[in-house]
Structure formats: structure tokens, C-alpha cells
């Protein structure tokens, strides 16, 4: 066992058990460990003596971990702080890195990870001592609503990188397949930067014809080319002090690349047809899903611009490489849709989610977003079922079309309730129509393994009875069924109930 006599570690956590167990593990490796049971006590301890590494709990009574972290950045600016969080939220990851944490670790701990991370932190501490060059900037904490979802490991790496680059001015290259969230990440970098009060603008270089892109970026003087009837201010000028996101930068023609390079190197531009040199201070965030290295080799992308843009690179993983993020993305999208418009769909059935987690999502998060939007329109009741998923997804996932799905959502009492809700809309008035008994009967038969068309048969029967009961009044019938009139009309058409 290696001895670490001179290495001192502080554990700040209000949970006695966590402190105890961490202390045991670390002490057994020869580290000198001290404990503090609150943020305040931790700050005092850190002021009193030097700790190379500080384990800091994020959620504590009184002063929170992030608050404590900010104080520690002045009280113990050299210590490597490892934030301990209950689960990896985007916010915590970004904020922790932004406030200068060394890293963070998600509870429950993997002990090997704790020890590896401690070693890494100690190494960084030693390196930093050798070349001390100032501390991370202090920025006031704000409760950001990131809008970026992902608790998978690859996304945590992305969030950390955002936190690391945000407050500097370096150019960032964001790479990833189409629809992975490159623009979202660029926005997030801007929001967390010191430029956040200034504009963020996005230009999709692939969507603008070559002859117009320069005017879009740098502006033009009146009369500089046919059609230039007015002077125009370009994005670089409009964005002065802020961040400019250049999407699909690989699609930019070589002459424009040269001008971008000048804007980056000299901080100045010229409007098309203009003589005057205009000073601009713009942070560039570029994105591409093309192989820029290959383009540099083929001389279709300037090598000097490539190096200038590629100071920091953030690679966003494809959705198929982080399928564990699908449930939280779906949940996030449903919540957002619910906020945006009145919508009855609240969840996706387990079986539908299982299919979604086996699909390869070639269009990444954008495709998932479109799928959810489409499903909520199609779904009846408050749950998106497997049958509501687009055919191409069902066909692409092995076994998704087999009839095991006949009992979709019927395996536990809770799911039974969901089916009941879907069928009779949780409308108390319906019980007066004797539909409870009908529903029980259907449920029983489905449990016995009769195929899923029964669900539709029951739906048809319920709709037919309600229409009969209301004398064909669609307003009353849809209210009773707890569905919209459009859904009712769809049912009437598909079940041929017009004369019911
Ligand atoms: N992690 C995420 N959490 C929530 N929404 C996301 C996430 N990633 C992407 N999205 C959503 O998916 C859509 C596509 O994202 P975005 O436009 O940022 O992708 P992109 O990589 O820039 O695409 P393209 O390369 O086609 O321009 C957007 O509506 C965005 O809000």
C-alpha cells in the first residue's frame, strides 16, 4: 500500500455516515483526513490549514455545496475540490466546473473511482504548485435553466467541458452528428460566459448561398453589388461583445474562410464594398458534422483557420451512444410540450420507452423531439403507447412488432389503472353508464392473453355507448370521455360509428 503521509484531505458533508465511510477508505490508504459537518465549518477548517483535496457534498442543510465551493475558491484557492452530488444534473455539473471544482462524483460512490479521483486531484495539486498561475474566476451563482438534458457519462463530459470553457474567451469547436445539440451547447457556453448580457447569434453557413454569406457575416455598403440597395450591418458587428455561432463551418467557401481568420486574428472586419476597417470583439463558436481534418488535407479548409477554431473541442455523442438519456429527454420534452400548450399526454408507456431505447436515432435528439411531438398528437388518453410510435421505428427495432405487446401496460395494478384511464378517461360520470363493469371484463380477458385488438374493441364499444347515451351529441360525448372532439371524430371515423 502506498503511504500518503503528507497528503491532507478534508471531507465536508452533513451526513455522518458518508463522512465516516469516506474517512475510513481514505485513512486506510494513508491519507490524513479531517471532517467538517457543514459548509461553514468546512470553510473554517480550510482557512486554518492546507488541504490538497476537499470532498464537498452538494446538498447540505444551511450553506449548499456550490455556495461553499465559491467561498473555498478564496479561502482555499489551491485545494482541489471534488463535489459530491446525489445524481448528475446538468446544472450541478456545469456550475461545479465553472466555480472551479476539480471534478465531481455521483453518489452512491464506486470506491475505486473515489481513490482514482483522489490520486488524480493530488497529481493536479502537485502540478499546479509547480506552475501556479492564478485561480479560477469567481462568478456569482445563478439558477440557470439549462434546457440541456443528459445524465449519461458522455454528456457529463460535455457539461464539464462547457463549464471549463465558458468563462474564457477561447474559440470553441463543437462537433457531433446532426441533431445532437450543437447549437444548444453553443448557447449554453454563451449563457455561462462573461458575455451573457451581449447578443448570441447563430448563422448556418450551409443554408446561405456562397455569394451572400459574406454580406450576412460582415455586412455590405449600399450599391456594393446588384441588389444591395441598402447598407446592411453584418452579424459580426451586430454581435459585438457577444458570441457568434457558425454552424456547418465546413461548408464555408475559402475566400470567406480567409475573412473569418482575419476577424479572429486582428479583431477587425470590412463590410462588403466598404473601405473602412471596423473593430469587433466577437467570441466564435463553430460547429460542424464534417471531417475538417480531411478537408484540411484536401485543401478545402484552411489549415490556419482550422487551428484557430479548434482551440477547444467539445464532441457531442450521438444519441445511440447514450440511449440511457432517452427517458429523461422524453420526460423533459413532454413537460415542455405541456407548458407550451394544453396537452393531456403525460407519459410514455414502459413498452414504448423500451422500443425507443433500442432504436438507433439516426437524426439524434431532433428526431426524438419530432417523434414525441407526433406521438402526443396521435395518442389517445394520457399515455403514449407503443402503437403510437412511427412505423419506421417499430420496424427498425427487432421484436417491436410482435404481439407480446398485446398486454402493453397491463402487467401491474398501476398499469391497469392507466388502461382504465385511457379507456374511460377517468370521468366519474361514466360509471353511471355501467362502463366500469365492461372495462373490468375487458381487462380480465386481456390478462388471459386475448390479443390487443381488444383494447380497440373496448374503446369502440365505450365510444358507441357514450354516443348513444348522449344522443350523438359530440360535445357532450367528448366531455364525458375526457377526449377532444377531434379525437372523438377520429374514433367515429375509424370505427364507423357515424350512425351510433
Ligand atoms: N441534450 C438535449 N436536451 C434537450 N434538448 C436537446 C438536447 N440536444 C438537442 N436537443 C434539441 O434537439 C434539437 C436539435 O438540437 P440542435 O439544433 O442544437 O442540434 P445541432 O447539432 O445543432 O443540429 P444540426 O447539426 O442539424 O444543426 C433542438 O430542438 C434542441 O433543443
Automatic annotation (TrEMBL):
The keyword Ubl conjugation does not apply. The modification 4-aspartylphosphate is found at residue 57. InterPro entries: AAA+_ATPase, AAA_lid_NorR, CheY-like_superfamily, Homeodomain-like_sf, HTH_Fis, P-loop_NTPase, Sig_transdc_resp-reg_receiver, Sigma_54_int. It is found in: Cytoplasm. GO terms for cellular component: cytoplasm. Residues 148-377 form the Sigma-54 factor interaction domain. GO terms for molecular function: ATP binding; sequence-specific DNA binding. Keywords: Activator, ATP-binding, Cytoplasm, DNA-binding, Nitrogen fixation, Nucleotide-binding, Phosphoprotein, Repressor, Transcription, Transcription regulation, Two-component regulatory system. Residues 8-122 form the Response regulatory domain. One of its GO terms (biological process) is regulation of DNA-templated transcription. SUPFAM superfamilies: CheY-like (SSF52172), Homeodomain-like (SSF46689), P-loop containing nucleoside triphosphate hydrolases (SSF52540). This is DNA-binding transcriptional regulator NtrC. It comes from Oceanipulchritudo coccoides. The lineage of its organism: Bacteria, Pseudomonadati, Verrucomicrobiota, Opitutia, Puniceicoccales.
Amino acid at each position: 500500500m502506498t503511504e500518503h503521509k503528507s497528503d491532507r484531505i478534508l471531507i465536508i458533508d452533513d451526513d455522518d455516515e458518508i463522512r465516516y465511510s469516506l474517512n475510513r477508505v481514505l485513512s486506510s490508504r494513508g491519507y490524513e483526513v479531517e471532517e467538517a459537518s457543514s459548509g461553514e465549518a468546512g470553510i473554517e477548517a480550510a482557512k486554518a490549514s492546507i488541504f490538497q483535496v476537499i470532498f464537498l457534498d452538494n446538498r447540505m442543510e444551511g450553506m449548499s455545496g456550490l455556495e461553499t465551493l465559491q467561498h473555498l475558491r478564496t479561502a482555499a484557492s489551491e485545494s482541489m475540490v471534488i463535489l459530491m452530488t446525489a445524481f448528475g444534473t446538468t446544472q450541478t455539473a456545469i456550475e461545479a466546473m465553472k466555480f472551479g471544482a476539480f471534478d465531481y462524483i455521483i453518489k452512491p460512490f464506486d470506491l475505486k473511482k473515489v481513490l482514482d479521483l483522489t490520486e488524480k486531484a493530488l497529481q493536479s495539486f502537485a502540478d499546479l504548485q509547480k506552475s501556479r498561475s492564478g485561480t479560477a474566476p469567481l462568478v456569482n451563482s445563478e439558477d440557470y435553466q439549462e434546457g440541456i438534458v443528459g445524465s449519461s457519462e458522455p454528456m457529463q463530459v460535455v457539461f464539464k467541458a462547457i463549464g471549463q470553457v465558458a468563462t474564457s474567451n477561447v474559440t470553441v469547436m463543437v462537433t457531433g452528428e446532426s441533431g445532437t445539440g450543437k447549437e444548444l451547447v453553443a448557447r449554453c457556453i454563451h449563457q455561462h460566459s462573461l458575455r451573457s448580457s451581449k447578443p448570441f447569434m447563430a448563422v448556418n453557413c450551409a443554408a446561405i448561398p456562397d455569394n451572400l454569406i459574406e454580406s450576412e457575416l460582415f455586412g455590405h455598403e449600399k450599391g456594393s453589388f446588384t441588389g444591395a440597395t441598402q447598407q446592411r450591418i453584418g452579424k459580426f458587428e451586430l454581435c459585438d461583445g457577444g458570441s457568434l455561432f457558425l454552424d456547418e463551418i465546413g461548408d464555408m467557401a475559402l475566400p470567406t474562410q480567409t475573412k473569418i481568420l482575419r476577424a479572429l486574428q486582428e479583431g477587425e472586419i470590412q463590410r462588403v464594398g466598404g473601405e473602412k476597417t471596423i473593430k469587433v470583439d466577437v467570441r466564435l463558436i463553430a460547429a460542424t458534422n464534417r471531417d475538417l481534418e480531411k478537408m484540411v488535407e484536401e485543401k478545402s479548409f484552411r489549415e490556419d483557420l482550422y487551428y484557430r477554431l479548434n482551440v477547444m473541442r467539445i464532441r457531442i455523442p450521438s444519441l445511440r451512444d447514450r440511449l440511457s438519456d432517452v427517458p429523461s429527454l422524453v420526460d423533459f420534452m413532454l413537460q415542455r410540450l405541456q407548458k407550451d400548450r394544453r396537452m393531456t399526454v403525460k407519459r410514455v408507456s414502459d413498452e414504448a420507452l423500451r422500443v425507443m431505447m433500442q432504436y438507433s436515432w439516426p437524426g439524434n435528439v431532433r428526431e426524438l423531439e419530432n417523434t414525441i411531438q407526433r406521438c402526443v398528437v396521435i395518442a389517445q388518453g394520457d399515455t403514449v403507447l407503443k402503437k403510437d410510435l412511427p412505423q419506421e421505428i417499430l420496424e427498425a427495432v427487432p421484436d417491436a412488432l410482435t404481439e407480446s405487446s398485446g398486454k402493453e401496460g397491463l402487467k401491474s395494478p398501476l398499469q391497469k389503472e392507466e388502461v382504465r384511464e385511457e379507456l374511460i378517461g377517468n370521468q366519474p360520470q361514466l360509471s353511471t353508464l355501467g362502463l366500469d363493469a365492461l372495462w373490468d371484463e375487458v381487462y380480465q380477458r386481456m390478462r388471459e392473453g386475448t390479443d390487443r385488438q381488444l383494447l380497440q374493441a373496448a374503446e369502440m364499444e365505450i365510444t358507441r355507448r357514450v354516443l348513444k347515451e348522449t344522443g350523438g351529441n359530440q360535445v357532450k360525448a367528448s366531455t364525458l370521455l375526457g377526449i377532444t372532439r377531434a379525437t372523438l371524430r377520429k374514433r367515429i371515423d375509424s370505427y364507423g360509428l357515424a350512425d351510433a
